[in-house]
Amino acid sequence: MNELVLSAWSAVTPYGVGGEPFRAGVTSGREAVAVLDREAHPGPFTRGAVIPDFSAAKYVGKKGTRTMDRETAIAVTAFGRLIAECGDGLTERPGEVGLVLGTGSGSVQSIMDFTRDSLTGERPYHVDPARFPSTVMNRATGQSAIRHGIKGPNTTVAGGSLTGLLALSYALRLHKGGHCARVLCGAAEEYSTQRAWLEWHGRGEAERDVPLGEGGAVFLVEPAADAHAAGRGPLARILATRFRAYHAPDDARQALAACVRGALETAGVTADAVRLVAPLGLGGALAGQEERGIAEALGDVRPRMLRVSALLGDTSAAATGLQVAAVLAAAGSRGLGPGEAALVTGVERDGTVGCALLGGV
Amino acid sequence: MHDKEQWPRRVVITGLGTVTSIGLGVAAFLDGLRSGRGGVKPITGFDTTGFAHANGCEVDDFDPARWIHHVDPDGLGRATQFAVAAAGMAVADAGLSQDELRARRSLVSVGTTDAETRDLDALAGVQLAEGPEHLDPNVARRAQAGRLSTGIVRELGLTDVEALTIPTACAAGNYAIGNGFDAIRDGDVEVALCGGADAVCRKNFVGFYRLGTVAPEVCQPFDKNRKGILTGEGAGILLMESLDSALARGARIYAEVLGYGLNCDAHHPVAPDQDSLARCMEVAHRNAGVKPEDIDFISAHGTGTRANDVTETGAIRQVFATPPPTVSIKSMIGHSMGAASALASAACALALTEGFIPPTVNHGETDPECGLDCVPNEARPADLDVVQNNALAFAGNNAVLILGRHREAAR
Q1: Contact A124 B262 (CB under 8 A)
Q2: Cα A321 to chain center, whole Å?
Q3: Between residues 192 and 251 of chain B, which touch chain A (CB distance below 8 Å)?
Q4: How far apart are CA B215 and CA B199, in angstroms?
Q5: What is the pLDDT of residues B21-80, one digit of tens each?
Q6: Which of A69, A245, A289, A324 could form a disulfide with A107 if both were Cys (CB 3.0 to 4.6 A apart)?
Q7: Residue in B157, B211, B394 nearest the CB of A138
Q8: Is B134 a catalytic residue?
Q9: Distance CA A59, CA A67 (A)
Q10: Of B248, B283, B298, which marks where a domain is finished?
């Protein structure tokens, strides 16, 4: 059977660079949010979760990284880790490997710095041309392909806090459509002073105490048979992704419940198989709507809850991607067990909900 | 319910929504393409003081309140307003009522280069003048790429919907349309509203200006005397459904989506790669089940820069023993960035239905390095069966879409 599975993953997070620090942090429930160094991170937040001692020069190399934005460095590093762990065979036929990355609005720091330079320079075009590509939102995705020689479809996906789930769904469809043999898929977000200010102003007053985080999570999506052939035990089958919309804040619960029920039905899985749930847990009152929507869809089942945002803060576009990584981290090196299922959910402030249902192997 | 359906399903375009500098709505866009109208004017979207030249192709007669009825236009950035307006036009053009649309599972997929960077520009200005404590919460909230697609969901009142924005820069429109094609083909959704949107902004103009690629007056693709791109704006949204669905409801069919191809040069951040683009065309032909000789014309990426035009025509020569007529509608509507290949797809669909090849305007003398028949200055009547729409983007992201004429008699 040509079922698609997640067969490898990596992450770059406030726990450190690589999958292992993330696994250790998430499974032990260690909070990564800390008091921010105000010199490095001025802005409205006093606490946050940043990747310790992370820079493009340190992790991507000094060559050609002078103008590399942080989001791009996070993505390039995460994909690099994933590819290294899987071995060279993974990218032997680079035209058959797709790369899909979720982003918020690219690097808002790079975009707004470029505009500022135009507004403050002696002439409005006195800007550094080498910084222009970092102001385009496919920069991190494109650089990941360039740095790692991946020549298949290269797609950037954005959808607020559902970004990671939408990138996964896009990757499944891309594969199903015959556009590539396997997909490297993930989502990334940078901590920057500019993003902090935009988040601060964009949120309701009640949500302003939620700290910001950053990071990236990346996955290998491939047919189960290919994973086995390459000696990679599948970690989870991708049973379904599903999305819906709501048009009043109080309807988010109902929309998510319908979404989860739809995913269960598509997959032919009963609610009692769901052992792990990783909700987004953000958006003020929406987090409560999310919890109630999940409870409504799962009934009496009491799965283990993985609350990533309680540990890493609001990682915006990376959030649902990091939730998928948390499920894989919790499942361990052998993946989800036979008959087990895991659910990842999200509720976006602008009226959409989504979920992914993963199954044991 | 799908007993009689062919799988994978055939996918057709039955509705078009277009917001362009040469007209709002499909009738005005078609008239502009046929008559070779140009949308170039001095840019008014930001203060152009200090630039030696600042022409562009802006949408200057857009009243959001006329097109957006269910959400507050002020809660949407300009690019989202364009996308929402174009989506509404596409639904109306397809002859679907709101209830019929809402009853179907749908995909909304919108490509973009800069999303709401126009708002980010404004916020950068406020930040300089007053400090970051004084940013407008409404503007900060709406300045997110994801909103281009969720704005459409809100306006149309969709509930059973998957909505994503595809910020794959200047090839994003074709990416989004391909995404919708796959979703309908495999039965994931019944309707797809896909395309692209962008709004003229300082950040984008400054970048291209600094690279020396902005033409002082007009955009002249494939011309010996071309001087570069003109930045533009707008939105193109296509409504797609399965052929069976369109036939069952007696819908007018503009074109069939035969297939598409994507690849990545993985080479240079901004310069295109001829071999890689040629491969992308071959992938598109294979996926669509067509041969180079089947293509009746190519809607080129055709930005009007030397780097693009020479590389693109070189790639076309690699794939086509005898290249078909190759045109660039950017000569008329400028480079509308993420909307560009979506609007070019809409132009291709109209060309198939109406039987003409849109012209490449502002054309004096063809560059011998290109040497293609670019259908100079005047539209050409033509009986068309299969057309190809090229798109290239920064980071070496290529996307080629193949559309075919739907012939009733063949059914």
Answers
A1: no
A2: 3
A3: 202-203, 206-207, 209-211
A4: 18
A5: 999 999 999 999 999 999 999 999 999 999 999 999 999 999 999 999 999 999 999 999
A6: A69
A7: B394
A8: no
A9: 14
A10: B248
Fold match, A4-229 / A237-359: yes
Q: Which fold has domain A4-229?
A: Peroxisomal Thiolase; Chain A, domain 1 (3.40.47)
Nearest Cα residue to B212 out of A281, A36, A125, A333: A125
The last residue of a domain, from among B215, B248, B281: B248
Given a contact cutoff of 8 angstroms between Cβ atoms, the answer to whether B179 and B196 are in contact is: no
pLDDT tens digits, B349-371: 999 999 999 999 999 999 999 99
pTM of the model: 0.98
| Same domain? B297 vs B217 | no
Distance CA B383, CA B85 (A): 31
Do residue B164 and residue B211 come from a single domain? yes
Across the interface, do A351 and B183 touch by the CB < 8 Å criterion? Answer: no
Residues B45, B111: Cα–Cα separation, whole Å:
21
Q: How far is CA B75 from CA A106, A322, B89, in A?
A: 21, 29, 20
Kind of pairing, strands B297-299 and B326-327?
parallel
As given in the structure block, the two tokens for residue A247 are 């048009």
Do the domain assignments include residue B74? yes
CATH of domain A237-359: 3.40.47.10
Shortest distance, CA A176 to any CA of chain B (angstroms): 8
Active site residue B335: yes
CB B101 within 8 A of CB B156: yes
Give the pLDDT confidence score for residue B7 in this predicted structure: 86
Residue B42 lies in a domain: yes
A-proximal residues of B, 378-397, CB under 8 Å: 393-397
pLDDT of residue B3: 53
What six digits make up the tokens of B267?
A: 């080479």
Cα B186 → chain centroid: 23
Same domain membership, residue B229 and residue B209: yes
CATH number of the CATH domain containing B293: 3.40.47.10
Residues B286 and B332 in one domain: yes
Per residue in B272-324, pLDDT (tens digit) is 999 999 999 999 999 999 999 999 999 999 999 999 999 999 999 999 999 99
| Token pair belonging to B221 | 């693709």
What is the structure's pLDDT at B411? Answer: 42
Identify whether residues B142 and B27 lie together within a single domain. yes
| Environment class of A167 (CB within 10 Å of its CB; exposed 0-12, middle 13-18, buried 19+) | buried
Q: Which of A111, A174, A207, A260 to mutate to test the interface with B (most CBs of B within 10 A)?
A: A111
Q: Which domain holds residue B321?
A: 258-405
B130 Ramachandran zone, left/alpha/beta (phi>0; psi -120 to 50) = alpha
Q: What size, in residues, is chain B?
A: 411
